[in-house]
Amino acid sequence: MEAATIWGERWSSASNNMAKAYMEVACRKQSLVCLAADRSTMAGLFELIEAVGPYIAALKTHVDLVDDWTPGSWASFCSAAKDADLLIFEDRKFADIGGISRKQMAGVYNIRAWSDLVTAHLISGPDIVDGLQAGWEDVGREGGVLLLAQMSSRGNLLDPKYTTEVVAKGKQHDGVFGFIGNGSRPEELATLRAAVGESKMIWTPGVNLSVGDGEMGQRYGDPVEAVMAGSDCIIVGSGIHKSEDPESAAKAYASASWSGLTQR
Ligand code: 5BU
């Protein structure tokens, strides 16, 4: 089915090019799953993408947690991700002033050269979005920023007033792809969706098909409920990469997320 039909107003009012690219991939794959590929070796990462590539729409990385990282192996990994028709999302959680964030897009990891999306806190003010966009422009690429409006971890300091301000400022910026929302609490997510409206994405970590929370304060909610409450993409890590059968797990998350979208 056409992306415009499936996504409705989210498609017609999208204000960031990368958002349309994502909605199209999601339709091709019938999956709203972003895999949080939190494995510490390059071999583990390659194995994962090979097993689950067809069932996910985006790949979320933490480039700085890989033990045997090299520029060459990372370039091959990103090329495997592109071959698997995936958007690449570096969850860097930038937070510095605009000019430094721009420089941090370069450096050893050269995030600007391979990422389609990055996360940022708005704690330092809205210029961070311009800084990150300038980073992509420096290498002739386009990308989108996901601002942290909520977090999934317990006790986090992103209170409702902060969330409201992030959404109000972020909505006005075309460089903002969307917002991170808390996937473990559908009622918080519904409130966030009401504030965000239709023009921006909401992506949600803190989602798992099994009951119970994760380690070190991570909280989990149900993927279908998250999508029904307004999430456009469920970010799933251990539910897939720690599963005994990552391929079947990825298929199950894809099917849950797609059924949430079609019901919505
Ligand atoms: P999990 O294994 O499904 O719990 O992994 C969740 C991933 O999402 C992990 O890579 C975190 O860095 C990321 N995350 C999160 O869990 N909660 C948040 O609020 C944000 C990111 Br922002």
Account of the protein in words:
It is a single chain. With 264 residues, this protein is of the alpha/beta class. The protein has one domain (3-263): Aldolase class I (TIM Barrel), CATH 3.20.20.70. 44% of the residues lie in helices and 14% in strands. It contains twelve helices and eight strands. It has helices at residues 3-7, 9-12, 17-29, 42-52, 71-83, 98-104, 127-138, 160-171, 186-196, 223-228, 238-241, 246-263; strands at residues 33-36, 58-61, 87-94, 117-120, 144-148, 176-180, 201-204, 233-236. An eight-stranded parallel barrel has the order 1-2-3-4-5-6-7-8, surrounded by five helices. Strand 4 (117-120), helix 7 (127-138) and strand 5 form a beta-alpha-beta unit. Helix 4 runs parallel beside helix 5 (71-83). The protein is globular. The model has no long low-confidence stretch (mean pLDDT 97). The protein binds 5-bromo-uridine-5'-monophosphate. Residues 36, 38, 91, 119, 148, 151-153, 180, 205-206, 214, 218, 235-239 line the site of 5-bromo-uridine-5'-monophosphate.
